[in-house]
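Forum > Structural Biology > Help requests

Title: Can anyone predict the 3D structure of L-rhamnose-1-dehydrogenase?

Hi all, first post here. I have the sequence for L-rhamnose-1-dehydrogenase but no way to get a structure on my laptop. I'd be grateful if someone could post the C-alpha cells.
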Amino acid sequence: MAALLTGKVTAITGAVTGIGRAIALEYLKQGASVAVNYYPDAQSESQFKELSASAGEGAKLIAVAGDISKPETGAELVSKAVETWGRLDVFVSNAGVCKFNDFLSLPPDLLTSTISTNLTGAFFAVQAAARQMSSQTPQGGSIIGVSSISALVGGAGQTHYTPTKAGVLSLMQSTACALGQYGIRCNALLPGTIRTQLNDEDLSAEGKKAYMEGRIPLGRLGQPEDLAGPAVFLASDMSKYMSGAQMLVDGGLFVNLQ
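Reply #1:
Sure, ran it for you. C-alpha cells for L-rhamnose-1-dehydrogenase below:
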C-alpha cells in the first residue's frame, strides 16, 4: 500500500514518549519528514535517542528541545522544520501533563503549571504553526490537537486537567473557523484511557486496571499506537474535507459510560 504522507513535513510536540512517539514513528513510516519537540532534560534527551534508533538510519527526523509552556518553543520547532525542509504541512499539538490530585487540596502551582503546558502551550504552538501555514506557498496544512475523552466527561482527581483538554478541543473548533480561509484544517483527537507514563501510577492501584477494562466495550486499555492511525488519517488528504471535528479513540468507552 502506498505511503499516505509522502513528502509531507510534520512537527509534533511532546513526541519522545507515549502517544507523540507513536505518531512520530508512524508518520515516518508513512513517508513524512518529522520534527519533534521534547522537554529539555537528560531523560528526554535519552528518550529521543531511543526514538531515533527505533526510526532507523536515514529517517527524516530532527529534534528541538524546549519547554512547550514557553511561547518561543513552538515557534522554534516550526522554524527548525521549515529551515530543514522548506515548509510545514502537518502540526500535532500533543505535549501535556496529567498529575492526579484531590480538588480540595489542589495547590495553585499545580493548576497553573497544568494550564501553562496543556492549554497555553498548545495555543502558542498552534499559533506558530498557523502563521507558517498561512504564509507559505501554497498555503494550507493540517493541525491536530490531542485533546482527551476528559474534554467530555468529569474526573474527581482531574479538576485541573479536564478543563485544559476541553480547552484544546475548543481551540481546534475555533481555529478551524479562523484558519479555513487559508486552507488550514484543524481537528481534535480525543484518546480514551491510553496506557502511557502519564497514568501508570493511577492504573497501578489495586483493581483500577480491571475496573477500567470492564467499562471499555473492546475490553482493553488503549496503547499509544492506537492513536497513530487516526493521526495519519487527519494528517493525510483522506481527511481533506474535515475541519473542526473531534475524533474519539477510546475503544467505545464514552458510549458505555453510565
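The beta strands are 9-12, 33-38, 61-65, 90-93, 141-146, 184-191, 246-249. The mean pLDDT is 95.
Shout if anything looks off.
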